[in-house]
Write a structure and sequence with these properties.
The protein has 329 residues and is an alpha+beta fold. It is built from 10 helices and 10 strands. The protein binds adenosine-5'-diphosphate and magnesium ion.
Length: 329
């Protein structure tokens, strides 16, 4: 199959969308064409996934397709943008129709829940890697930035932290998945849920927002740095993966000496959660509690923004390092 037949066979179906912003011209020409409606801004993000770095060699192509799109949609969510379009640059060692079918199936599963359309890309041969560029729409001047946190703002995190972190340990150490908590952890690793609805609902409530991709502490650190502020948090308040409470599992992973606070710190440093960490003034507490109920997503208040730079543990008064997250170099 040549490159063009491949594009027609596999990628055209992903260009059909289930509503949302239409594109003027999709796959097939030299460029795609899109129109940004008046009063809106285009939010643009890109993320690359490389075999052996972002996913192990034998990962199910359906999980690769799903996750590649999910991590990009998570960036749009963190800005409060509604997903609209994406492009896909795919480098494949061989043209395997079995691989491509599974890949498109996984990506399609995520697209069923989110109105976003594939409008173009590039297909090349080489070591397996893929880059997606996602585009979304947000009301002019209303995007959630990292730089908006102010002293006395509350700090929140959505969902549960550390699921993907422990999921990765389970996969890497090839442990049998023996209970539901382990299953949930591996599911979070392979099929993260980008918080798209939450992100858009936080516009007008949150002062700053980021998605937790590098680890909660590192990502909160980015908000603090961009906003020129500090914070006090209570690490014990952060809800962590149920699997991290399983002593048998922790022993299997060789963590039998790990104290509870060390395990908690692992969760706060592990990446790939794709939850949202955001700040909001105390006057919004009621609205945020209501939002948590309406969306059925835990939104946990974990600390407060301070004028003094740096990150402190509320309970012990000790400094917490924000440099624990994943970095490539
Ligand atoms: P060009 O040579 O002008 O870059 P290509 O031959 O790379 O064009 O691509 C032809 C068309 O197919 C373009 O519209 C391009 O956006 C689309 N396309 C190529 N690869 C992909 C892909 N992986 N996913 C979606 N669309 C693709
Ligand atoms: Mg090309």
């Amino acid at each position: 199959m040549d490159e063009f037949a491949l594009i027609n066979a596999y990628f055209r179906s992903l260009s059909q969308r289930l509503g949302g912003a239409p594109s003027d011209l999709g796959i097939g020409d030299d460029c795609a064409l899109v129109s940004v409606p008046p009063g809106k801004q285009l939010a643009v993000t890109t993320d690359t996934l490389i075999e052996g770095v972002h996913f192990p060699r034998d990962t199910d192509p359906a999980d690769i397709g799903y996750k590649a799109l999910a991590v990009n949609l998570s960036d749009l969510a963190a800005m409060g943008a509604a997903p609209a379009w994406f492009t896909l640059c795919l480098t494949l060692p061989v043209c395997s129709s079995e691989w491509l079918e599974r890949f498109c199936q996984g990506m399609g599963e995520l697209m069923q829940q989110r109105p976003v359309a594939l409008i173009g890309g590039d297909t090349t041969r080489g070591a397996l890697s893929l880059s997606i560029q996602a585009m979304g729409l947000v009301d002019q001047g209303r995007a959630l930035l990292r730089s908006g946190a102010r002293p006395h703002d509350d700090i929140y995190v959505s969902g549960v932290i550390g699921e993907a972190g422990i999921g990765l340990q389970i996969v890497q150490q090839q442990l049998p998945v023996t209970d539901q908590a382990m299953q949930v952890a591996v599911q979070h690793l392979n099929r993260p849920q980008p918080r798209i609805v939450l992100g858009q609902a936080l516009v007008g409530l949150a002062t700053a927002c980021i998605d937790v991709s590098d680890g909660l502490l590192a990502d909160l650190g980015h908000i603090l740095e961009r906003s020129g502020v500090g914070a006090r948090i209570d690490p014990e308040r952060v809800p962590v993966a149920v699997a991290l409470h399983n002593d048998v599992l922790l022993k299997q992973l060789g963590w039998q000496d790990g104290s509870r606070s060390a395990v908690q710190l692992f969760a706060l440093s592990a990446g790939d959660d794709y939850e949202l960490c955001f700040t909001a003034p105390p006057s919004q507490r009621g609205a945020i509690d209501q939002l948590a109920q309406r969306l059925d997503i835990p939104l946990t208040r974990i600390g407060v923004i301070t004028e003094t730079p740096g990150l402190l543990n509320v309970a012990s008064g000790e400094a917490i390092s924000t440099r624990r997250g994943y970095t490539h170099f």
